[in-house]
Fold this sequence. Notes:
This protein is of the alpha/beta class. The chain folds into 2 domains: 4-116 and 282-337, Periplasmic binding protein-like II (D-Maltodextrin-Binding Protein, domain 2, 3-Layer(aba) Sandwich); 118-280, Periplasmic binding protein-like II (D-Maltodextrin-Binding Protein, domain 2), CATH 3.40.190.10. Helix content is 39%, strand content 14%. It has 14 helices and 9 strands. It has helices at residues 4-20, 41-54, 68-75, 95-103, 134-141, 155-158, 177-191, 195-203, 205-213, 228-236, 247-252, 269-273, 298-308, 325-337; strands spanning 33-36, 62-63, 86-89, 109-124, 169-171, 221-223, 242-246, 257-259, 280-288. α8 packs across α9. The chain is globular.
Amino acid sequence: xxxxxxxxxxxxxxLALAACGSxxxxxxxxxxxxxxxxxxxxxxxxxxxxxVKNNADFKSPIIESTGTGGGMKLLCAGVGAQHPDIENASxxxxxxxxxxxxxxxxxxxxxxxxxxxxxxxxxxxxxxxLKLTPEVIYKALAAKPYGKEQTAKTWKDVDxxxxxxPILVYGPPSTSGTRDAMKELILEAGxxxxxxxxxxxxxxxxxxxxICTEVRGDGAYVDAGENDNLIVQKIETNSKAIGVxxxxxxxxxxxxxxxxxxxxxxxxxxxxxSFAYPGARPLFIYxxxxxxxxxxxxxxxxxxxxxxxxxxxxxxxxGLVVSPDDVLAKSNAAATDFTTLSGDKLK
Length: 347
């Protein structure tokens, strides 16, 4: 049974949350609600489990895997009990999302980097082997590679040194931060290998984005939804298929699948930590500051994150790559001081 102190806190917090909503709509809430990235989801779930163990007076947080893009829409829809408190993100908030938040009254947002991850390309144990580069991946997956018609049916069509197996890649949907990061870190890099595309970025960025990041929709790339475990299952049962997901899912299933090198570099903890691996990326949580004193346990939940993201912490044991020391110091400060994100450096 929850203590009288916690019950009183829940009442006071619920009233505060109702007051902070722009329209006062929605019932009061006494549990934390988190939405967003499927990549960050398993880390957030573990933090939630340890939060409950260490804070018996608070209810278990509700963690939803909606994809980074979908989660941002939910986070930025407004302030109040009907809106989530935290967004898990496998890429940084976009300027357009920040502006959407501001327009809907979500004025104060705290950005906290929780660690690093890698966008892993993988196949089944004993399955297809490919020497991948950003350029090869771009040519294979782009809707219109370098602005031309996509004609590649097999990997050999992309590069004569690769096997004549059909291109079949199971990957994240358009709402996923992993898809966004794949576009930025892999597809754009491969596209810019062409000098004309590099010049196009300077002259017409909108056209550059369309040519360099739009993924083919003819069945060679299969949108597998926000369930990364499903992608693992798909490639395990098809030795010719490739899967794209966060590094933690690769590490968790190394008995069933193996990572494919990009530019000759394996997707490993050390290579992601040093950014030697081309698909290395930061992971974030975004906290709605107006909810900090309104939702019972929210500050303590963020404190549980801070206690979990160190090198010897529980998150590293399930695949989170720890941030460099200088970034870790900033994360600890953000999780303690709750500094508001200005939005000036967002793209």
